[in-house]
Amino acid sequence: MISVQELVKLGPTMTIPQQFVRSNQEPSSLPFTSTPLPATPTIDLSRFVSGDDRNLELQKLHSTCKDWGLFQLVNHGVSSSVLEKLKHEVEEFYKLPLEEKMKYKREGEREGYGVRRTREGGKLDWVDCFDIIANPVHRRRPHLFIELPSSLRP
Q1: Ramachandran region of residue 114, left (φ > 0), alpha (ψ -120 to 50) or beta?
Q2: What are 70-100's pLDDT values in tens digits?
Q3: How far is CA 48 from the centre of its chain?
Q4: Is the dihedral of CA 10, 12, 18, 19 positive or negative?
Q5: What is the pTM of this model?
């Protein structure tokens, strides 16, 4: 497995492995202008239960997923202290040496540590990831990650 974090540590002399190169795509670059970049779309979870704004928020969610592929979720009811603790645990996991993170690689499983393949010619995304299925509850498999800190287990 090729770890993106380990590649980046090699510095500017590093050659990007062919598994990551998509020669049919133009490199993205942001123009240097004074125009601010668009803000990340925000989805308000409370509007899904309020009724009146539900359909509007569903349409916004649909178009955001289609056009952006990501969004910030607000009014979800998860306390900021829980989110900060989770963020800290995830950061600590990614600081571990590669050998330690590889203990969580699960061959043949969608879950675990690794890199993600795209659908375009089997190229790898430029990202290290750790996937855990948390919902729906019946698909959880906590036995795969019993060694993880409890805050990271499904």
Answers
A1: left
A2: 999 999 999 999 899 888 988 888 888 888 8
A3: 24
A4: positive
A5: 0.65
